[in-house]
Specification:
membrane, mainly alpha, globular, 0% strand, single chain
Length: 310
C-alpha cells in the first residue's frame, strides 16, 4: 500500500489540496499541528542524506547563486510588479514573504521522479532555507508599514527550533548512531513519512476556502496570483540557469517553483499579515499541478531528442 502511495505521490498530493478545500473545518483543525509535522519530516529527510556529498555541493558557488535568485531576484521582480499594480500592503507582505521562502524539502524527491539527480536540488533547498531568515527579515522590514514591529526574540527562537533544530539533530544522530542500525530504522520510518507529507496540502488549502466563502471575486484573483507566482518562479529558475545545461535549468526551475511556505509561517506567523494564509492555501493547487506539467515537458523534450533526423 505504501509503495503504491509513493509511486502516485504527485496525484495524492494534488488530491490532498482538493480535499482540504472541500473540507475547510477539518483542514483548519489540522493546521496547528503542521509545524511539528514539518519539523519531523525535515529531520527524517536530513538523516537520510549523504551529508559529506551535501556539504561538498553547498561549498560550490552555484548553490548560493541559486539561493540569491530564489529569494532576492524573485523578491525584486514580484514586488516591482505588485507595487506597479498598486497592490494592498497585506497582499504585498504576503507576496514578498512567499518570495523569501526556501524550497520544499520534498523537492529532491520530485526532481528524482522526473529523472534528474536530486543532490543539486537538495543543496539548493538547504541554501535557500538558510538564506530565508535574512531575506524574510529584510522583506518584512522594507515592505511593512510604520506600525510593523518584529519581535526579534520570538523570531530567533522560532528560527532555532524550526530551521537549525532539525539540521543540528540530524547531524548529531548521524554522528553518534551506528550507521547500519540507523539506515535500517530510517528505511522503515521513511515508508510512513510519505503519508505525513499529504497533511500539508490538506491542512493549508482550507485557508483559501475561507477566503472563497467570504469574497469569491478576490479569491479568484488570489488563485490567479498563485498560478502566476508558480509560473514566474519556475521560469526565473529555468532562464537564469539555462546556460548551465538543460538538466541544471530544470532542477533550478523545479526547486524555485516549490516553496516551503509552511516553514515561513512557522517562523514568522502573525507578522506575515492576514492574506498570507489564504495565499499559500491557493498556492497548493498550482504547486502540486507543477510535477505533472514538468514531467510532460521533460518527457516530450527527451522524446524529441531521441527521434532520428530524417
Amino acid at each position: 500500500m505504501l509503495a503504491l502511495i509513493a509511486k502516485h505521490s504527485s496525484l495524492f498530493l494534488l488530491s490532498g489540496a482538493i480535499l482540504g478545500f472541500s473540507f475547510p473545518s477539518m483542514s483548519s483543525a489540522l493546521l496547528p499541528a503542521l509545524p511539528y509535522i514539518l519539523f519531523m519530516l525535515m529531520l527524517f529527510t536530513l538523516i537520510g542524506i549523504d551529508q559529506k556529498a551535501l556539504v561538498a555541493s553547498l561549498a560550490k558557488p552555484d548553490a548560493w547563486r541559486y539561493a540569491l535568485v530564489h529569494a532576492a531576484l524573485t523578491t525584486l521582480i514580484v514586488s516591482g510588479i505588485a507595487i506597479s499594480l498598486d497592490a494592498s500592503p497585506p497582499l504585498l507582505i504576503a507576496l514578498v514573504a512567499v518570495c523569501a521562502t526556501g524550497s520544499l524539502f520534498a523537492t529532491p524527491a520530485i526532481v528524482r521522479s522526473v529523472g534528474f539527480n536530486p543532490l543539486a536540488a537538495m543543496a539548493f533547498t538547504i541554501a535557500s532555507t538558510l538564506m530565508m531568515p535574512i531575506v524574510l527579515f529584510v522583506n518584512l522590514t522594507l515592505f511593512s508599514d510604520d506600525s510593523f514591529s518584529l519581535d526579534m526574540k520570538e523570531y530567533v527562537v522560532r528560527l532555532l527550533i524550526f530551521i537549525f533544530g532539525p539540521m543540528l539533530l540530524s547531524y548529531l544522530i548521524r554522528k553518534h548512531a551506528p550507521q547500519e542500525k540507523l539506515s535500517r530504522v530510517h528505511g522503515k520510518i521513511a515508508q510512513f513519512t510519505i503519508v505525513l507529507v499529504f497533511s500539508f496540502p490538506f491542512g493549508l488549502s482550507g485557508q483559501y476556502r475561507w477566503l472563497w466563502e467570504e469574497d469569491r471575486s478576490f479569491a479568484l484573483i488570489t488563485m490567479a496570483i498563485a498560478f502566476m507566482i508558480c509560473v514566474s518562479f519556475f521560469l526565473i529558475g529555468l532562464l537564469v540557469f539555462w546556460r548551465k545545461g538543460k538538466e541544471a535549468a530544470f532542477v533550478a526551475a523545479i526547486t524555485s517553483g516549490n516553496r516551503n511556505v509552511l516553514l515561513t509561517y512557522s517562523v514568522a506567523g502573525v507578522f506575515l499579515g492576514p492574506l498570507y494564509l489564504p495565499l499559500i492555501g491557493a498556492l497548493q493547487l498550482p504547486t502540486y499541478i507543477q510535477p505533472f506539467v514538468v514531467k510532460f515537458f521533460v518527457n516530450r523534450s527527451r522524446n524529441t531528442i531521441k527521434q532520428p533526423v530524417a
